[in-house]
Amino acid sequence: MSKIFVDACFGKETPYTPVWMMRQAGRYLPEYMAVRAKAGDFLNLCHNPEMACEVTLQPVDIIGVDAAILFSDILVIPDEMGMDLSFVKGEGPKFSDPIKDEADLNRLIGEEEAANKLTYVYDTIKLIKERLADDKALIGFTGAPWTLATYMIEGQGTKTYNICKKMMYSNPELLHKILRKVTDVVKLYMEKQIQAGIDVVQIFDSWAAAIEPGKYDEFSWQYMVEIAEYLKEKYPHIPIIMFPKGIPAFLDKVYGNFDVFGVDWSTPMAFAKEKLGDKYVLQGNMEPCRLYSKEATTECVEAIQNIMQGKRHIFNLGHGILPDVPVANAKHFINECHRVSGKK
Ligand code: 1CP
């Protein structure tokens, strides 16, 4: 059965414009909170295929999105490379022993072995594929090497990126070695996600905007493109979505063999269309906080539809949904995307 989401990723004409939301399986859903409470620790939830499958399918059933996104986290990759991840309540992710030098990097587990340790992710994918309706797509994902490296070097989330930027300007060779190693793990990891059954790949570069525009290609984009090209050569039927957040100054320089460019909320959709719309399908890009108001949501969905006209477009938010958004408003967003693009 053809999947409208996959067709749209390849720029084919579809009966309406498909929609999903970044972070759609999460804390704004009471049903997620119930499973999360049962799991105890957040990582237990990621490690348990039965529960991870359940929360992956929740937004499909409850909100009516056109694609599911695998429930996992980008940080399971460095965790399985040997970096000892924990989620401290109220503080977010923590690595006990961040990478400071080449010796720390060399202690990490090899590409093949690290990718093989992520079996719980592949088992979750297989379970989801058994249960997901045939006409819905399953999105698998990874963090971009740069975004992953920020956590591996800083040991946690950061506002200033001062430790990785110190490395970028004073020891770029080491930063490139870290990015190389992560890129090689991610290639195998995404290949295994595809073999387990995902229909689409998304690469999240959430912290793209931390890099000055003139250095973005060198420290991030080229590695993302390398991953995309590796996968495209072997699996041309799997669409690839790139989501580098907050880099309008780089739009003129975007290149590479992938299908969909994810537009974040700070980049005007008309601007993205002018720069990239002929070459790539565009995904996005409602400012997620508009979800607090149904009127503000409808206004934005109509404005995006006016620009994209239902062509070469996938509706989404311009970044993740926040935990205190009412479920009814999230549903309203999905319904409005379907309404304006002519879903019967
Ligand atoms: O207690 C909880 O429930 C933890 C909250 C949470 C959730 C629901 C975290 C911790 N991760 C996730 C799931 C998750 N993470 C998904 C699957 C759910 C879905 O999209 O429906 C995905 C795709 C991610 C990806 C992710 N994790 C990104 C990239 C996407 C983005 O939002 O920019 C990033 C940067 C992370 C790191 C991370 N994981 C969790 C937190 C709190 C953070 C951010 C920390 C920080 O701000 O630095």
Structural account:
The chain is α/β, with parallel strands linked by helices. It has one domain (4-340): TIM Barrel (Alpha-Beta Barrel). 50% of the residues lie in helices and 11% in strands. The protein has 15 helices and nine strands. It has helices at residues 4-9, 30-39, 42-47, 49-62, 76-83, 102-106, 111-117, 119-131, 145-154, 162-170, 172-196, 213-234, 269-276, 294-308, 327-340; strands at residues 67-69, 85-88, 92-95, 137-143, 200-205, 240-244, 260-262, 281-283, 313-314. It has a seven-stranded parallel beta sheet with strand order 1-4-5-6-7-8-9. Helix 8 packs parallel to helix 11 (172-196). It is globular, with a radius of gyration of 19 Å. The chain starts with a helix and ends with a helix. The model has no long low-confidence stretch (mean pLDDT 97). The protein binds coproporphyrinogen I.
